[in-house]
Amino acid sequence: AIDSVEDMDLLFKDIALDQVTVSLVSHYPSNSAILFPMYLALAKRRGIPWDRLKGSIQNDITLEEVVRSGPEYIPPQDCFRIQCDNIEFIRQQVPLWNFMTVNGYNLREFGTSAITESAVALVNAAETLESLQDRGHDPGWLGQRMAFFWSIGNDFFEEVARIRAVRRLWHRIMTYRFNATDSRASWMRCHVQTSGVSLTRQEPMNNVVRASYHALAAVLGGVQSLHVDSFDEAYSVPTEEAALLSLRTQQILQEETGVTQVADPLGGSFYVESLTNEMERRILDEMEEIESKGGYVAAIKNGWIHRKISDYFRQERELVESGRIRVVAQNTYQSQDKLPSINVFRYPRGAAERQKQRLDKLRQTRDNQKVAEALIGLEKSCRDGRNILPLAVQCAENGCSEGEMFAVFKKAFGLWKPPVLW
Hints:
Layout: H1 5-11, E1 21-24, H2 29-45, E2 54-57, H3 61-65, H4 76-93, E3 97-98, E4 100-103, H5 105-111, H6 114-134, H7 139-143, E5 146-152, H8 156-177, E6 190-194, H9 206-221, E7 225-227, H10 240-256, H11 270-292, H12 296-301, H13 304-322, H14 351-365, H15 368-384, H16 389-397, H17 402-413
Parallel strand pairs: 1-2, 2-3, 4-5, 5-6, 6-7
Helix pairs in contact: 1-2, 2-4, 2-16, 2-17, 6-8, 6-11, 8-9, 8-11, 9-10, 15-16, 15-17
């Protein structure tokens, strides 16, 4: 658990922050506005200038307002504002940091098609750049540090074509919509994780094959960064053994197959080029549909995106259950064997109790007057429209906990209830 800068210090014990590239998987904009300031406060404590820090956060409204089942949500427009605040502050103060990993992956895993995954992410990215352009920032300058996160499913050639289509679309959006002249700003830099939702509990070693083909499709589509899901993820958090096998899958692909030696190896294939054009057209059509409804934030507020997820998930489930989508060992070529026993990851006993003790000690040793003043300053910044990150960093430096800072967001912005679908 990372509840304060003290936990962040423990997490990075004996690690030189200016000599590694760090991925802080903070998901939500509100979380990013809490955890990343703790990381910055730690760097300041260690005397490391922020302009030497390298890494990335996710910081995506999709994750906070759509892809989770949390008990408390801040309103979408405020979540989007925090997303933009994070970007503005990080781009100015931490120039080597990737301030947003525009998320398609978790939306796809939650229950959407590759088309919706791509369209939502591209509209979100464009809407974000437009908002920051209204604040006076150059989209080309911002685009140099924007990245994307995609899922890769079972349809091999469709996934290759989809990544190629998104790459082309982003280049056109940056070039013609935002007039970006820096080539780096128009690169669709992306991380890909193989599909977890495609993995099955039946005959779990089959998942090694599935994830390997997902990874190959990602490489042929031209990704920069890759994560191969482990075969036991249909059961639990991966064990060390399963994670090592996933790593070896990537290393074999990189070192032994030769597929990384040429850019766009399937370019020129009649089928792949035709499919790329089709995917691009379908993504564009859905982007236009979202923008016609007032943009992505509006699509969240009015329930469009939630209905899209619900309808697609139900349809896919029906296709699997009817056998029209065939899943080996689940609804076709089924084995009569019982589900095998599997080594499931378990958290260390007593972890929660130890963390509570750490929090109690923090509250007893910090300057609680400074904590109260910092939290009041953060709330005022939330209410008056100023960028909240400078105050969030101040809170982190003074030992405010994650729960205390999120309580300020709830008080300043209020709570929002996602649309309920029947």
